[in-house]
Design brief:
The chain has a single domain, classed as Methylamine Dehydrogenase, Chain H. It has one helix and 34 strands. The N terminus is likely disordered. With about 475 residues, the chain is mostly beta strands.
Length: about 475
């Protein structure tokens, strides 16, 4: 017993002191051969600027299998490939979710997986969305065969509040073994009820047998107006930890409220113009791996990009306690926030004091330069340390006040942060590795902890909008990268 205790202390000390570096970044270029072609570029809302099309990635609890999902280049059918989590090479056969329009989250189990997609409902469905508009749906597959399928929108789901569709699958899927629940948080547009024609978001819970469960104080049919970013992570019980960026001026920790009411926790003031807030959590194909839990603790870390906030004024449309701000900077910088539990922010909330010249004094900044930062993500190595990563553009041209920017790609950056909120060591960059899929922590002990993710090896051009008609780039290969401490 004494020897085990000493070893544990040694491992903890080693885990706490190790610092990431470029030498600890391992790549597996073009290692996974795909059965179908994949277009890795998705154009952003409004600007058309290129974003990485998400490739959801998950590893089973026993560490013996992993799965990656990708959208067919035809933009119909989501394919799920099992792979070896040590070599990242394909194993088994590809499972195709026929009719899927985008993958919005993936959970791996020891006997299969669950996946969140959006797809059109059958043509004979009563009260289905018009024009075959897709609806969010959760699938469970066991040993390659469909076990169950549960619609998360459309008729029969929150009918009295307004039926919802999801034209774009922006959101995330998580699972809690302790709670025995899947949680899905995703953008919706209602096609009936008071919010018909408007965009919001929905939080839905599904039991392990596929039953849609409405949980008071956790489920939500309509939370944050014109949601421009979602961060979601599992907890030991519902409600799961949730964050939203809305179109009225703030980013909220809304685990308690599931919405944007000011009795929630205000993480950040953001300029919002024309229903956008600077793509703080990635914009189109974003809303994944932005919020992570430190292992074996109740603590979380959240990363986003922001232009900062000055000149706090009252949001007269929303009323008392709601504010508007102006941008502090032209380009966006990387910020992070810590939470001691799923309801509580470490440190001060963002101010709601009208007349304040400084609306961002509570922000923990990772960067402070003139480059534009985007595609921010966070993952944890264990109970002590986290990884925050982002992309930068040199000499950015930011044509839109609350959208993305364009310019010369300057690299993907990696920064270690500990549970106290301290930056550990210096950041480093790579010019040929990107984060295009979920960042997954491999449970290999503190001394050997690693975080891995999928990407496509290609030239990454952020200087201009995607060509008219969308990107024609396709590939049949995926790469993976791992960062070890």
């Amino acid at each position: 017993m004494r020897g085990s205790f000493v070893l544990s202390l040694f491992s903890l000390a080693l885990g706490a002191s190790a610092v990431i570096s470029k030498s600890k970044l391992t790549t597996y270029v073009d290692v996974l051969a795909l059965d179908n072609t994949f277009n890795p570029v998705k154009e952003a809302y409004w600007t058309g600027y290129p974003h990485h099309r998400r490739t959801p990635f998950a590893v089973s609890p026993d560490g013996k299998s992993a799965y990656v999902a990708y959208l067919d280049s035809s933009e119909t059918d989501v394919h799920v490939q099992e792979l070896n989590p040590k070599t990242f090479k394909a194993t088994g056969t590809t499972v195709t979710v026929s009719g899927g329009k985008e993958a919005g989250g993936l959970v791996a189990h020891n006997d299969g997986f669950a996946i969140l997609v959006n797809e059109a409902m059958p043509s004979d469905t009563t009260n289905a969305p018009p024009s075959d508009t897709p609806v969010a749906v959760l699938y469970r597959y066991t040993s390659g065969k469909q076990t169950w399928k549960t619609w998360l929108g459309g008729p029969g789901v929150h009918d009295s509040e307004g039926r919802a569709a999801s034209p774009d699958m922006n959101g995330d899927l998580v699972y809690s073994e302790d709670a025995g629940l899947y949680g899905a948080y995703f953008v919706v547009t209602d096609y009936s009820g008071d919010a018909s024609g408007h965009y919001g978001d929905s939080i839905e819970y599904v039991s392990e047998n596929g039953t849609l469960v409405t949980i008071e104080g956790a489920s939500s049919s309509w939370g944050c107006s014109h949601n421009t970013g979602i961060a979601f992570e599992a907890a030991d019980a519902a409600p799961f930890t949730s964050i939203c960026a809305e179109d009225q001026g703030a980013i909220w920790l809304n685990t308690k409220t599931q919405g944007m009411t000011n009795d929630g926790v205000k993480i950040s003031n953001e300029n919002t113009t024309n229903g956008a807030s600077g793509e703080p959590m990635g914009g189109m194909s974003g809303s994944y791996s932005a919020l992570a839990r430190f292992a074996e603790t109740s603590r979380y870390i959240f990363a986003w990009v922001s232009r900062g906030a000055i000149d706090v004024t009252e949001n007269t449309w929303m009323g008392d306690g709601y504010t508007n701000v102006q941008n502090r900077t032209n380009g966006r910088n990387v910020a992070f926030s810590l939470f001691s539990d799923k309801y509580t922010k470490v440190g001060a909330q963002a101010t709601s004091k009208v007349g304040a010249g400084d609306g961002d004094s509570q922000v923990n900044w990772v960067t402070s330069g003139s480059n534009d930062c985007s595609n921010a993500h966070a993952a944890t190595f264990g109970p002590v340390n986290a990884l925050v990563t982002w992309e930068e553009i040199s000499d950015p041209i930011c044509d839109y006040i609350a959208m993305g920017c364009r310019g010369q790609f300057a690299g993907t950056y990696f920064q270690q942060i500990n549970k106290k909120g301290e930056l550990v060591g210096d950041s480093f960059k790579s010019t040929d590795v990107y984060v295009a899929g979920d960042m997954v922590t491999f449970d290999e002990g503190l001394a050997a902890a690693r975080i891995c993710w999928p990407y496509v090896s290609m030239d990454w051009d952020l200087s201009q909008a995607v060509g008219y008609g969308g990107s024609t780039t396709t590939t049949k290969k995926l790469s993976f990268a791992c960062l070890t401490r």
